[in-house]
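Researcher: I'd like a candidate sequence for this fold, 248 residues long. If you have to choose between options at a position, lean toward the conservative one.
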């Protein structure tokens, strides 16, 4: 009985060694992180370092069946929390009947954001009580076109990246960043969380944040009709300053 057992253990160790080798090999052969090509830039609003963010799904916009797709993106960003330097963790809190606007709250809601002029599949609406670069609470507006749950995972992974300071990267190589464009609301881009380049860029963003907290970025200017004809489909974020007496 010893020989078969020894052989089994040897094969198991070989399999684990091969898997580890493949993982290292994949990391070593990945494209270098070059801003605008394989990596996003940073400079957007961010959650304060070491934050605990509570994420909700507004019902009936979303249902319990949507939860696993959202949690995949959250879990993947959570795994990278320490490595990215942000140490921001996202806690899934389930369904809510109204958006949450307390400290550290983030709510997914449905809202028509797609248009020919601005071809967004989702938008991040960030709110800061101090009108600085740090987010107090926010909303992720997901267009009703996004019905495929794999695409929902991609969209959430992308918008979480925005909330950690990452900008869109329209021309980045496919698969190099969660901040690339989505081809359509029906086709997944295969990215369910941060890539190695995303983690390194978030690290740079939070290192800069330690040195300087700036004013909140201004909302992007609306694109002209001429620009919109050639615009890439993406889910570039929108930001808004808090409105006194705002009701949700």
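Model: Candidate sequence:
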């Amino acid at each position: 009985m010893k020989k078969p057992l020894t052989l089994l253990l040897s094969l198991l160790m070989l399999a684990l060694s091969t898997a580890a080798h493949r993982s290292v090999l994949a990391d070593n052969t990945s494209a270098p992180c070059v801003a605008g090509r394989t990596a996003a830039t940073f400079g957007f609003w961010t959650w304060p370092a070491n934050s605990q963010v509570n994420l909700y799904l507004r019902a009936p916009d979303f249902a319990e069946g949507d939860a696993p797709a959202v949690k995949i993106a959250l879990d993947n960003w959570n795994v990278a929390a320490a490595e990215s330097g942000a140490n921001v963790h996202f806690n899934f809190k389930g369904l809510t009947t109204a958006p949450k606007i307390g400290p550290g709250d983030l709510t997914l809601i449905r809202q028509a954001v797609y248009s020919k002029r601005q071809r967004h599949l989702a938008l991040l609406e960030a709110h800061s009580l101090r009108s600085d670069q740090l987010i107090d609470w926010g909303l992720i507006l997901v267009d009703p076109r996004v019905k495929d749950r794999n695409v929902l995972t991609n969209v959430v992974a992308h918008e979480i990246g925005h909330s950690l300071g990452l900008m869109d990267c329209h021309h980045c190589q496919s698969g190099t960043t969660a901040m690339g464009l989505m081809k359509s609301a029906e086709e997944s881009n295969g990215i369910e969380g941060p890539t190695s380049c995303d983690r390194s860029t978030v690290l740079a963003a939070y290192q800069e944040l330690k040195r300087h907290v700036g004013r909140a970025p201004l909302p992007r200017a609306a694109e002209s009709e001429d620009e919109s004809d050639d615009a890439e489909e993406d889910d570039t974020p929108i930001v808004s300053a808090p409105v006194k007496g705002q009701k949700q």
